C-alpha cells in the first residue's frame, strides 16, 4: 500500500473536500467515522490523521467525541475547526461556545514553519465557519496563528506532531489552503506522493481478482463513464468471466441503446447482452411521483432484471459489478459519520434487502474526475471518458412527478435538441453535465393566435470537478434563445422554457 491518511468525519459539509485536497497531492486517503476503535486505527496504519469539522459543539453530550488515545499514537494529527476544538478540549484547552464566525478572515502567522512553512511575513486569507472556537491553547501547546477575532486560529503541541486550525484550509476560499495541506502531508507526516490513477488501476485489478476468483461476473452497464470504467477494470482482472448487461428501461435518452451497443462492441470488444425491460420498468413506476419512492422501485427492478439475466446468460453469476461512485454513497447513506442523507441513489440506498448478488464496486471511493483519469490509465476511448453523466434511473428522475410514455416522449425530444445545440456550439466538452427536465406544471401560452395550455421544460447545465459542488453554466443569451425557439417549435406539447441558474449547494445537480 502507498502511504495513506485517515480522515475522521465529524459531519462537516467540507469533509469530502479534505479528501480531495489530499488525493490531489497524490496521497491516498479514506474517510471513516470517528467511532472507529483505536485498535482499528492502529491496524489501518495511517501516516497521518485528519479530524474534520462538523456541526456539533464539544459541549453537547451527544456530540461525536475523540478517543484521547488517537493523540497518543505518535501519528501526526491535524484537527480542522471542530476537530481542533476536540483536541483542545481533550488536552485541557479553553473552547468558547456560541460565537459564530462565517466568512473570510485575515490570518496572522506567528511561526512560518511546520504547518505554515513557506508563508513568511504578512497575512493570509482564510475561510472560517464555526460557532465555537478555541480561546486558549491547552497546556503544552503553542498558538501558531491568529486573526482579529481568533486569538488561537492555529496551534501545535510541543514535542508531538499534533496540529489544529480553526479555519478551513480545504476550501477554495482559503487560497493557500493547498500549501497547508501539503505541509501537513509531506513536511509533518513524511508521506510520499505515490497514489496515481495508474496505481489505483493496479490495486483495483488485484482486489477484484482476489474477490471474484474464478466465479462468473455480471456488470450492469449504462454506457456512462462510471460503469464503463468499472467494466474495463473487471475485464482486465477476470477477462471472459465478465458479462455486461445493458438494460433498456424505456427511460433512456434518444438512441441511447444503439449508441451504447455500438460504442462497446467497436471499442472494447466486450461480451454484451441487451435486455429490453421497458414495459416492466414503466409499469412498476406508473403513478409514482415521490422521487425517493421512484429511486427505490427502480433500484429493486434493476436487481430483478439482473437476476434473470444471470440465470439466462451469465451462468448464474454470483457477482454484480456497479459503477457506484463516492458522491453516490455520500448523498445516499450517512455511512461515514454524522452526515445527512440527501437523496437515495438507486444503486446504493435503493437496493433491495434480499439481493442475491455479492457487489463488486471498484470505484466506490472515487470522485468523478478520478474515475475519468482511471479510464485514461486503462486506455479507454475518449468517447467514454468525455460523456456527460447520466443517472441510472434515467429520464424517470427528469420527468418530475408521475412518469408516462407521453411525458417521456416530450422530454426525450427536448433533451435531444438541447444536446444537439450544445454540440453544434462546440460547448459539449466545456460543460460537465447538461440535460432537460420536464416540470410537473403546465402554463398558458398563445400560438397561432390560439390559447395553449402545455408543458414547461427546464434546461440545466453545470460545471463541476467531482459532482459534490457545481456552478450553473453561463450560456450566451443568444444560445438560450435559439434552444428555446427550437423546443417550442419542434416539441409537441411544450410552450415554455426556463433555464436553471441554481448552484450546488443549495440545489443538487439533478432535480430529483
Query: What distance lies between the first and last C-alpha atoms, to the nearest angstrom?
Result: 39 Å
What is the fourth-level CATH superfamily of the largest domain?
A: HUPs
CATH class of the largest domain: Alpha Beta
Q: Tell me about the biggest sheet? A: 9 strands, mixed
Unreliable runs: 339-349
Return the domain count: 3
Strand order of the largest sheet: 2-1-3-4-11-10-9-6-7
Can you walk me through this structure?
By secondary structure, this protein is an alpha/beta fold. It has three domains: 185 residues, 3-Layer(aba) Sandwich (Rossmann fold); 189 residues, Rossmann fold; 103 residues, GMP Synthetase, Chain A, domain 3 (2-Layer Sandwich). Helix content is 32%, strand content 22%. The protein is built from 14 helices and 20 strands. The chain has a nine-stranded mixed sheet. Strands 14-13-12-15-16 form a five-stranded parallel sheet, sandwiched between helices. Strands 17, 18, 19 and 20 form a four-stranded mixed sheet that branches. Helix 5 packs across helix 6 and helix 13 runs antiparallel to helix 14. The longest helix has 22 residues. The protein is globular. About 2% of the residues have low confidence.
